Amino acid sequence: MSYDMEIDSESEFSTWDHLSFNLVMFMLPATYAMFATHLFWFYETEVLLPVLFLGVAVIIFGVWDAFNDPLIGFISDKPNRFTKRYGRRFPYIILFGIPTMVTLVLLFTPPMTNAKVNPWPVFLWLVIILLIHELSYTGVSLTRALYPEKFRTDKDRRKNSAIGIVTNNLGFFVGFIIPMLLVWEGDINSYWIAAVILMIPCFIFFFLGIHGIREDKVMIERALTAKREPFFATLKKAVKRKNFMTLVFISISTQVFGACIMASIYYYVKFILILPPERQADVLIMVVWFLAGLISIPLWMKVTPKIGHKKMQIIGIIITLLALIPPLFIRSLILALIFVGFLGFAMGATALIRFPIFADVIDEVSLLDEKRQEGVYQGVFVFFDRLGIILQPIIFTVVHILTRFDPESDTQSLIAQQGILAAMLWIPGLIMLAACLIFWKYYDLTPKRTLIIKDKLKQINL
Question: CA-to-CA distance for 439 and 194, rounded, in angstroms?
Answer without folding.
Answer: 39
